[in-house]
Amino acid sequence: MGGLVEKQVGDAMHSLLDADSALAVSVQANDHKINAMETRIDEELVRILARRQPAASDLRMIIAISKSLTDLERIGDEAAKIARYAQVLCEEGESPRGYMETRHIGNQVRLMIHDTLDAFARLDIEQAFKVMQADSEIDLEYKTATRALMTYMMEDPRYISRVLNVLWVLRGLERIGDHARNISEQLIYLVKGADVRHTSYELIEKKIHS
Predict the structure, then answer these.
(1) Is 27:12 a contact under the CB 8 Å cutoff?
(2) Using CA atoms, how far apart are residues 38 and 200, in angstroms rounded to an integer?
């Protein structure tokens, strides 16, 4: 499921940056596969809870996977939305601004997804922590790009509609970064038994190395 989600995000970005309308349609059509996987894995988790009644670290594993599952499904939703905006931009004409920022933030977000899935597979909480830190950088870059595009729209109202679509793409990427961070938080909970949501980086680092 993680592999398909990662591919969906990559394909959604390619459909936008390469003006590939057919690929954008394909990404939207494939979203149902991710939804079906979420349902199937959820059912399996419920069966494990009912039959095996796991405790301690095994129970943490079930909880971490269950919560990460929700974040993966939402990343898939955001990829489908980005593809929808890409399709509109292909049909209406590209935005004159914002593609450079979108490419940059998109590359960073795709790396975050890859790294958080890799960290989960290897139970690597150090890498998970790096993903969390990367999310803060993306949040800053998103705000900077948003301010620049808002200024551009005020200066040249002719392109408001197209630039707004790019802004929605950037918003989707920022949310994907948030979901990748959430998965990393769940991994730290799984390995260390510590809830690091809404916690400063200093305290998280102490818990990782304790």
Answers:
(1) yes
(2) 31
Q: What is the DSSP string of the chain?
A: -HHHHHHHHHHHHHHHHTT-HHHHHHHHHHHHHHHHHHHHHHHHHHHHHHHH---HHHHHHHHHHHHHHHHHHHHHHHHHHHHHHHHHHHHH---SSSHHHHHHHHHHHHHHHHHHHHHHHHT-HHHHHHHHHHHHHHHHHHHHHHHHHHHHHHH-GGGHHHHHHHHHHHHHHHHHHHHHHHHHHHHHHHHH----TT--HHHHHHHHT-
Look up residue 31 and give its two tokens.
């979203």
CB count, 10 Å around CB of 156? Answer: 12
Give the pLDDT of the chain (210 residues) as one tens digit per residue. 999 999 999 999 999 999 999 999 999 999 999 999 999 999 999 999 999 888 888 999 999 999 999 999 999 999 999 999 999 999 988 888 899 999 999 999 999 999 999 999 999 999 999 999 999 999 999 999 999 999 999 999 989 999 999 999 999 999 999 999 999 999 999 999 999 999 899 999 998 988
Q: Cα(61)–Cα(64) distance, rounded to whole angstroms? A: 5
Distance CA(9)–CA(159), nearest Å, equals 26
Report CA-CA distances (Å) from 183 to 62, 95, 143: 13, 33, 23
